[in-house]
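hey m, so remember when u said the tokens were messed up on ur end? i reran from scratch. heres the input so u can diff it against urs
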Amino acid sequence: MTSKTDEFFRKAEQLIAAGRFIDSKGWVPATSGNFSARLSDGNIAITVSGRHKGRLEPDDIMLIDSRGQSLDGKKPSAETLLHTSIYQRFPQVQAVLHPHSVNATLTARLFQHEIVLEDYELLKALPGIATHETRIVVPIFANDQDIPRLAARVEAYMDAHDDVHGYIIAGHGFYTWGASVDDALRHLEALEFLFDIEIRLHGVTRL
């Protein structure tokens, strides 16, 4: 069994703080969502399955290897493969956050396959974007309890699109990531705001 390092506990505290903030916004109701942070040795600190994200304690953060295998005997989230696949694809990514918000759920209902975000100043909160004159697409995938199959669909999409900043799983919130927990949290807030704007705009239009 691999011992937990000081770095693990520092990252765990960052995930705990992120959980309190995200929960304060109502973006992780009940025990939904999961968060993770990569360590310098390639292992990953990730939330234990079934824990309330607004009331996390150090014992609610576990250690897995880069393939998602538990290194401390605890049970990771069922969606762990979605985290590890993001880390494998993007070497610069050090944190992955998965909220389960009202806006992400409504966005999937309204837009079904993808949501286009264009000409918003807040897009500059996302990495590599320096102007509001930008258009990004956030894909929406059908939910699937077969996580390897769902991860394969996400991988296939990312193979064909190199500018993905996040993705939505219908009825299951969304995933975003960053070079640190703080960066991932900034991306999460920006996408939440932009989903809200598009829901208000297109929801009113449909009426």
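this time it looks ok to me. Residues 86 and 146 are 17 Å apart (CA to CA). if urs says something different then somethings off w ur setup not the seq
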